[in-house]
């Protein structure tokens, strides 16, 4: 039985205070029923004795608290899940946005997820092919991993995200693969770009798309990634699919957290973000992984734009602590026309060694990767030296490395947003570039692989 209260005492922005309540729980859903029958929705943010602080999903403008009733529903926010979600577009609260009927639910799941026993986790160790050489060849994505993309304002992270969503797949053809894509706080044009791109390429058939627009309420922005992860958990652990979750843009999510925190008059932490930002982000990122005894898996690629291009900003800083590496996009490469502009040297996938090698990608993958990193780093040093002192100071071998770095950016990293390279094509391209160096310089590659793959 639902309890209704006419004891709404105060409204401040999106927050509403209800007094004299009993048995109310944190995160419980609330309906605010007005005299004319209009209903607004919210959830309980805080409970203290007989007082409940409610966060409204809609605007509080025009709300008459003297004649309104607060109805507590006794449950938290839930998502109706079914295999029919694939191919559909929803808003940030899980309501259909594609004009079709609501999903007929197999079950309803709490969007906050369920606690996972750490001992039940299985180690990520299987390769996911994204079709992007800078990731597949050098910073490999492993099934069950969380690998964020650190972007900057004005860089094409939307196109990069759409490319990964379109192209990602597991190499074993008999295994079911799905993508859950959550667009958080984006413009209508960006949302339409994602929807039309997925429809045009046919990727929509294996994708569940959640779009939260910039003019939607902040509380919906906080719910959107949890909706996406709940859908992913159903597809992975109930239906045995391998699910890639792409969340863009995490910065908009954190700004919504800061807005809600300020409305609650909480003591701010670094840069005004709430002190629990680390814990909150961990509650999202740690929902990736593999579980022993379950066939499916959840792999996460959160995308965030670094405010002021600052890697030490709290959002990328805390994200780096929680996740297993990062892919960093470079403004300098973007200006050169390199797309996707992945800066491979500071980028890192901490689990890449677990997903490559014989039986997973190819036996020469690890050696090739190490040699490419080394040669590109030396080539960049040679280019910087020639820019300062002139090309005349470079030795013959330094000039070869500088030329290698130039070709590496133009041919290996830059592939456009429509090219989908297999892992074999990526590795072969690496060998083509390395073959421009003398064999004696390939000190990180076993002799047997040089004999097999080096081109004179």
TrEMBL record:
Could you list this entry's UniProt keywords, alphabetically sorted. Answer: ATP synthesis, Hydrogen ion transport, Ion transport, Transport
Q: Which residues form the ATPase F1/V1/A1 complex alpha/beta subunit nucleotide-binding domain?
A: 131-349
Record's keyword annotation contains Transport: yes
Pfam families documented for this protein: ATP-synt_ab, ATP-synt_ab_N, ATP-synt_VA_C
Q: Which residues form the ATPase F1/V1/A1 complex alpha/beta subunit N-terminal domain?
A: 8-72
A Gene Ontology BP annotation from the UniProt entry: proton motive force-driven plasma membrane ATP synthesis
Q: Which SUPFAM superfamilies match?
A: C-terminal domain of alpha and beta subunits of F1 ATP synthase (SSF47917), P-loop containing nucleoside triphosphate hydrolases (SSF52540)
Sections of the chain in a coiled coil: none
Picking any one GO molecular function of the record gives:
proton-transporting ATP synthase activity, rotational mechanism
Please state every residue range assigned to the domain named ATP synthase A/B type C-terminal: 354-454
Q: Which family does it belong to?
A: Belongs to the ATPase alpha/beta chains family.
Q: What does this protein do?
A: Produces ATP from ADP in the presence of a proton gradient across the membrane. The V-type beta chain is a regulatory subunit.
* Protein's recorded name: V-type ATP synthase beta chain
Q: Which organism's genome codes for this protein? A: Candidatus Borkfalkia ceftriaxoniphila
Lineage, uppermost ranks: Bacteria, Bacillati, Bacillota, Clostridia, Christensenellales
